[in-house]
Design goal:
The protein is of the alpha/beta class. The chain has helices spanning about 5-10, 35-40, 45-50, 50-65, 80, 105, 120-130, 145-155, 160-170, 170-195, 215-235, 250-255, 270-275, 295-310, 330-350; strands at about 70, 85-90, 95, 140-145, 200-205, 240, 260, 280-285, 315-320. About 50% of the residues lie in helices and about 10% in strands. The model has no long low-confidence stretch (mean pLDDT about 95). Bound molecules: coproporphyrinogen III (CP3).
Length: about 350
């Protein structure tokens, strides 16, 4: 841990802060000209695998935006490669897993001792920590077992998750074994990130919203709870993020994550109430709002902060990652608006005491 007293880490623990910390998922990405410039010379995977470059991309984005935390530049799918499933990015289709897992036979290629091969990610974290010291907290991350398994089985993104659900329903033992194997690798991977100085770990369950509550509870919650318990063992707070997940929130809360991500489909106060205000929450502006005129963005951000109502444990973010072509100016203005308006709101309350 490099920044245990930062407002971001304090908010993750549900402690009071003088302003609401703000950062953005995908804050380093194609919407930013500095990133596009680096991408002219290096592929996405090359950036991930060169710690100096990954650190540079992370640092440039966080400093340009003036946010309160930096997520390490990496990709969710990197652990697949060290488990024996190579993948590449196709310009038209996004990630493509070359030999998806569909049967007990395919499953045999999977290994669970490869986490040390991902050390380039911890090295990039260490380089960011060296650059910032205690000035800015660094977020490490990994995929949740469901979302990573969905890529392994579908072979890429999916609309209806038919192959994943088929395997889950028809071969429940194989499914559970797959999640267990993922957890072995992921627990070791995030432990290395924390050793390198990550202050918080975010677990991305981006596609969990395709599940019914019944299926989530039966096929996904037990192993997710195990992974989150393992991450908490490292001593840093854990953010558990999903999208389209309003109906799943009470069950997601049973993972005991310190922070739960809310997407924009639920008003922040209602989402928090569904969690009984037990964990901190992160969110939840619609990423597409950043394409609107600044006045509209500002009004909607103000509304989210008003709904949080100065309750400790709110981290401002979007409900999902920043999209390509997002106007950078709006993102910068949003970060400083959140910092200023939330500080004013805290002072106003302090003044009436
Ligand atoms: O700034 C940050 O948020 C850190 C970097 C980061 C990337 N990927 C870099 C990246 C993070 C946190 C991720 C996580 C990730 N990767 C997720 C979970 C987050 C989410 O959005 O739900 C997922 C599902 C992936 C898998 C993945 N990687 C997809 C679906 C894509 C998009 C493919 C496309 O062409 O749009 C990627 C590519 C990717 N990973 C980019 C970036 C910046 C796109 C830009 C590029 O090609 O350089």
């Amino acid at each position: 841990m490099s920044s245990p007293n930062s407002i971001f880490v304090r908010a993750c623990k549900g402690l009071p802060t003088d302003s609401t910390p703000v950062w953005f998922m995908r804050q380093a990405g194609r919407y930013m000209s500095e990133y596009r410039e680096v991408r002219k010379h290096h592929s996405l995977i090359e950036i991930c695998k060169k710690p100096a470059l990954a650190a540079e991309v992370t640092i440039t984005a966080a400093e340009a935006l003036g946010v309160d935390a930096a997520i390490i530049f990496a990709d969710l799918l990197l652990p697949l490669e060290v488990m024996g499933l190579p993948f590449h990015f196709s310009a038209s289709e996004g990630p493509v897993i070359e030999k998806p897992i569909r049967s007990a036979e395919d499953f045999k290629v999977l290994t669970t001792n490869g986490a040390p091969e991902l050390r380039y990610v911890s090295e990039a974290i260490a380089a960011c920590v060296k650059h910032w010291g205690s000035k800015l907290p660094v977020i490490g991350f990994c995929g949740a077992p469901f979302t990573l398994a969905s890529y392994m089985i579908e072979g890429g993104g999916s609309r209806n998750y038919i192959e994943v659900k088929k395997l889950m329903y028809n071969q429940p033992q194989l499914w559970d074994e797959l999640l267990r194997k993922l957890n072995v690798v992921l627990a070791a991977y995030v432990a290395d990130q924390v050793k390198a100085g990550a202050d918080v770990i975010q677990v991305f369950d981006s596609w969990v919203g395709c599940l019914s509550v019944e299926d989530y509870r039966k096929y996904v919650l037990p192993r997710t709870r195990e992974l989150i318990a393992a991450v908490k063992q490292t001593g840093v707070p854990v953010i558990y993020f999903g999208t389209d997940s309003t109906t799943l929130l009470p069950s997601m809360n049973e993972t005991a994550a310190d922070v739960i991500g809310l997407d924009w489909r639920v008003p922040l106060d209602e989402g928090w109430k569904l969690l009984n205000h037990r964990p901190a929450v992160q969110g939840n502006l619609d990423p597409v709002l950043l394409f609107a005129e600044w006045d509209e963005v500002k009004q909607r951000a103000r509304n989210i902060l008003d709904l949080a109502d100065n309750r400790p444990g709110h981290i401002f973010n979007l409900g999902h990652g920043i999209l390509p072509k997002t106007p950078v100016e709006n993102v910068k203005k949003l970060a400083s608006f959140v910092q200023e308006y939330s500080a004013q709101r805290r002072q106003a309350v302090a003044g009436t005491r």
